[in-house]
Structures are given as structure tokens and as C-alpha cells.
Amino acid sequence: MNICGQGSRFTSARRTFSLLPLVRYYTPRRAVLYAPGDDSKKLHKALSLNVDCVAMDCEDGVAVNRKDAARTTITKLLAKGPVSTQTPEWSVRINSVDSGLCADDISSIFSGSVVPPTVLLPKVDVSEHLVWFANKLSTHLKGKNSDKKINLIIYIESAKAILNLPAICRTAKELSASKPVEPVALVFGSDDLCASIGVTRSEDATEVMYARQKLVLVAKAFHLQAIDMVHINFKDLESLKKQCQLGASLGYTGKQIIHPSQVQIVQELFLPSEKQVIWAQGLVAAFQEHQAAGKGAFVYQGHMIDMPLLRQAQNILQMSAAAKSSGHDSTKY
Q: So where does Mg(2+) get bound (predicted)?
């Protein structure tokens, strides 16, 4: 598993600073593409794309009478494994704890010698959902002799989940100390949230803005990535661009997508621009020079530099470097 990089340390005459990213960083998940788990052709197509993450779906994208077929197809695909180190991150979206289908998903998908490195758990409304999942997974993985943790991506999709969000994240972090799971991201499920509060989602999504912003704040407080809502009209690429730009400006680190045509736009707009990277490189270099000279506060490009700005610069550089090292940078479309 990819583990968050260590923050750099700089010492001044007054105190030591530890530069930690605003987002706890694992692998880039600018675009999370769903592919139905019961459709081998679509799965292979998705996994061949230049996309950060593919979610092999057992949940909403699969009919109830096709769940077994999805589990079997995904398990066989996992056994074959990626053909390259630069393929997308392989993940599986299982069914929710309350669905009554989650236990069968776990026992089937984690039965083979190769298990998915990342699991997406939908409709987490309360901490107890995470406890049940972690215990079930831990029991099933016992004896597999693996010290690697499963990356856990948590879906927030209801009014109850929004209210319980800090407690959910706190529980996820606590479970990671004793269970084979490592929480890495939150996903904003806007459509189920709209159903939960009794509204219809509009094009500008103003009716879910409070929840959308709260998820980012809580995610960052717990050093998790924040993955934004789906743009359901995959043919309207101009509207997709606007939604990505707003999501990125709110602090989201990626977005759920449902069609290959959305990959390039989403991954480009959730990648720091060249101008941002140059700014960040210059700021970090200037900070190092001033620290080496024993100087404290300094001005960079007309702005007084403080620790929050320095952390932002470091985060930009980490995001850019991670995207390039994954092989999914925007120059390869």
C-alpha cells in the first residue's frame, strides 16, 4: 500500500516546523471511474484507460439478480492482476452494510489469493457500519499472512451521515489501529443525499452545497482525500468542466465519473496547473533559503509567507508529483 509521505522538517531559532500536507496523500484519485462488475467487457475497457482509479462495482451499477455474477467476474479479474505498474488503481465498490449483501461480497471477493487493495464502502450512516465491516473483513482475512492494510473509501450519502460525519471519521481512524483497514478518502454521494432530504438535484447543485462543503472540511480535518459528486450528464462536457472547477476550488481532490469521456477533463482540472507548480516550487525554495540563513518571516511575490501558505505549496507539489509518478498525467491523453 502507498503510505503518506513524511513531512519535511525545518528548524528556526524559535521552533521546529513539520511540513505536513493538507491532505493525507496516498495515490492520486482525481477520477474514480465506475464499471459494472458483471460486465467483463466494460471492466477490461475501464482498466485499460489512463485513469487514476477504477471502481469495479457490485452495488448500484449491478442488478440484484446479477450480484453473484459480479462477484465471480471481479474475483477472476483480481486473480489475473494488473498487466502494468501504471494501470489504474484497482478498487471494488461492495454493497452497503444495511443492504444484507455486504457479507456475501466480502466472503466472495476476499476469498482468493489476490484481494483488492482498495474497497469502497457505500451508505455509511453511522460508526457502527464501519465497525461491522472492519470486524467482518478482519475475520475473513485472518490467516492470509498479509500485513498490508486495505485502503478504505467511505461514502457519505444521507442527512444522517452528514450529521455523524466527524464521529464516522474518528471511528475509521481508531479502527485502523487494530483492523486491516486504512481510511483514505470520503466520497460525496449527492444523489442519495437528495433523496434523503427530499429534494431534486439541480444543475448547479445549490441544494447540497452545505453538505458538499462540510464533507471537505471534515475530510481535511482527518487527513483524508475528498472525492466529489458524479456529473450524471456525461455528454455535457462544458457543464462537467464548471462542476470540476467549483469542486477543486472547494478543496475536493477528485471526482466520481461514469463514462470514459469524462476522464481527461476531470483529471486535468484536479491537477495543479503549471503556474501553481512553479509558484509552489519557488516558495518552498525561498523558505529553505531563509531557514538556512536563520531568518524567519519573509516576503515571496509580494505576500508575507506563513505556515498555511507553505503547507499549501507543499501539497501542490505532492499532488503534481504523485500524478506524474502514477503514469496518468495529462500529457498522455
A: 157, 192
